Amino acid sequence: MIQRIQLNNNLLKRLGTTFFILIIYILGCTIPLPLVNISTTFRQVLANSSLGIMSFMSGGNLQRLSLFSVGLNPLMIAMMIIQLLTMMRLFYFDTFSIKQTMRIQQWLTLIFAIIQSLAITLMLKLTTNFFTGLAVTLMLTAGSLFVVWLGNMNTKFGIGGTITIILFNIISGTLPNLLSSIGKIVGQSYGYLWLALVVLASFGLLIFWISFNRAYYPIRMVNTMISSHDEPIILPLGLNMGAMMTYMVGMSLLMIPTLLANILGPQSLFANPYFEIVLSGILAFVLFYFFTFVQFDPKEQAKIMLHNNNYIIGIRPGEPTKKYLRRLVIHVSFLGALLNAIQLSFGLLGSRILGNFAGLAILPMNIIMIVMFMQGIKDQLLMLLFPLRYAHLMKDE
Question: What pTM, to 2 d.p., does this model score?
């Protein structure tokens, strides 16, 4: 009984910590960034580009010029670089301890926080002189590092880690535009019928992505240490493994074309919406495969199978298994890479196509991200609730 009360108190403390962190984050997002001018460039970029959407989906909030405008974006880029160095084993990075890796990630986060803060200050022309620009850059950098610290505190003492902050950003950032689009739909002829169709389509998309996230290709293996009459061992290869990191980290990279368009001017190739949507789609497609291979490395999987006396029927162990797994990952992940690339491109740039109903363009992308993020939060909640269920079963016995 005492143990159950302690577990309940631990869960309540974690929930309370998460709500407290979100309250601090909300307050920080409402504090205006001092010393800045809301320039014409800033208004044009937010109105005519996908920069605002990309920012709040990658942990930032450029739609409001506040101390937390840069947010978690630098951390997302730092995480991607860490993943890349680990996978490619550059500079012996795969031999580093967790403590060393986290220290490098912290330094990378600081560097990218400074770079992004400076880029936003200069490219959006928020200040008019050097010293004011330097002060604004320092404030944005400090605000970003504070949000990263909040995410780390939520990881240690709350629920969901940085995912919770990004999920809150997505919901709070898209809700006003979505409600505005719904109001415009209702005002049309047969408006409620169209609204019902949108709701049904959204529900169908939600069911599809929940199912697709759980879908996997079963790799059947045989172990030489067990009887040949036993059922084959199943190694699941997820169809949508690369989606989570593609959405979390990819948004940071997909902001680059928009920033380049602002630097090079409206006549540049990067300012062409068709070029931007193609480039965004290609980047998302490549990133999906990259993160899929990070999570399911054929070389590492083949090595593990060889050490555990497992082999795929009809495939020799070692190098042939690695090549087979690599081909399999490329084929199995194609549909997920294509669907996510389409969803990302349409979500970021579809607002230009839908016009007054721009809020609906990001609805499919929001559904995907909410499904993925809620799955991570749900898994952590299940881990916290497992001791309670175990204690309840022991009591029943």
Answer: 0.75
